[in-house]
Design brief:
The complex is a heterodimer of chains A (about 375) and B (about 70).
Chain A: H1 3-14, H2 43-70, H3 76-104, H4 109-113, H5 115-138, H6 145-151, H7 165-180, H8 184-189, H9 192-199, H10 201-215, H11 217-220, H12 224-254, E1 264-268, E2 276-282, E3 285-292, E4 295-300, E5 314-316, E6 319-321, E7 328-329, E8 346-347, E9 349-352, E10 355-358, E11 372-373
Antiparallel strand pairs in A: 1-10, 2-3, 3-4, 4-8, 4-11, 5-6, 6-7, 9-10
Helix pairs in contact in A: 2-3, 3-5, 3-12, 5-6, 5-7, 7-10
Chain B: H1 2-34, H2 43-67
The chains are: A alpha+beta (about 375), B mainly alpha (about 70).
Amino acid sequence: MTREKRAQKVSFQYLDPSLPPNHPCHHYISVMSVDYKSVLWNKQKKYYDIILWGLIFLWFISVFIFQYVMHEDMTIETMIIRTTAVTAFFLLHLILMIGPLSRLNKHFMPLLYNRRHLGVSMFLIAAVHGIFSIIQFHTLGDTNALLSLFISNKNYLTISDFPFQTLGFFALIILFVMAATSHDFWLKNLTPEIWKALHMGVYVAYGLIVLHVLLGALQYESHPVYFVALVLGFVAIAGSHLWAGLLENRKLRNIESPSADGYYKVAEVKDLEESCGTSIFVNGENIAVFKNDGKVSAVSNICKHQMGPLGEGKVIDGCITCPWHGYQYIPENGQSPPPFQEKLATYDVKVIGEEIWVHPRPRPEGTFVEPAIISNGKE
Amino acid sequence: MTTTLSILLIIAAMYMVLGNVFSILFLWKGLDKVDPGTKDSGIIFKLLLYPGMTIFWPFFLTKWKFDS
């Protein structure tokens, strides 16, 4: 079976009407292919983008009207600068919260898989803000506009008159690098490790933008709504990260000490939906456990293609299917079906009563491991 | 400070100009040699890669030269 043919099957499963509407396995957005696509658009992604840009437009208009009501004497250029700033900053908050929210609740997963479209949209709006600001404030003199950005105000040692524009400039550079490298091509060619490190720069950009707002707009804006919104945004981002982290820590603590033979109890059978998986960390190992057709198997949680989280995937056609790009693996031996060569480490697993136990010692990649049989509460 | 910043901006501008020249050449002639998965890719795909290529062009110049 070719990758393209399997990709078609994945798309079909995504629309499977036999699953209830709120079934987590509907969250698949997979198009598997060895070649790149310009933009991964399927029916769901098109709906997503239409809704996304519709909501962005409504938000933009609302903020624009709010600005007009609050400052009737404001010029159109300033209103565009402010409205794009508020819109991009709001979207940045959403982007930063999608990760922890999807760890807290699987229903946020579709937003996670579509986050790059949201990120590129946010960058484009932020770029409009930056370009309009530079045109309005730094192109009227005889100094180069970019040079003017850095030297028109040299009070770098003050707080109340700090040249906050420079902070926004550096934040915009980070966002540009992230948007420019959002395509799968960059993930593959820069290597997943470097790509991920690069994209963690979003937190640096967020910090710079918070300072940009604190030392800029909030120095001139006396209305408390802006300060309250900034604090609430920070609390929402920090709170969702902390909440997700605490719950994951609690989940880890709930994994009991190993039994005498080195197995860890990782879940209850009823916790796993049929043909679905879950991700666990045991003894430093990132493991995906799947329940399918009365059996339980465990493989490495990291897809060989682009490090996708296999535990968030589903078993399709008897194969574990990565939620990111549809790469597939046979649960029992972690091998991609022929002719493909990818292999995952496998783990010994057993079911005792209603409990799933996994041994965190990885078997060599592609090693067959007998799946545990779920049979009337007995091993 | 002004002189230092001017020099830095000129260096950055030169880096970007070289990046633009390289990106056009590389996306036209070298892309599928460095990454065979991009073979037969369209103009829209290459345009999407263009901005990033102007940033990371030394990396791809090395890869292109090495792979050749």
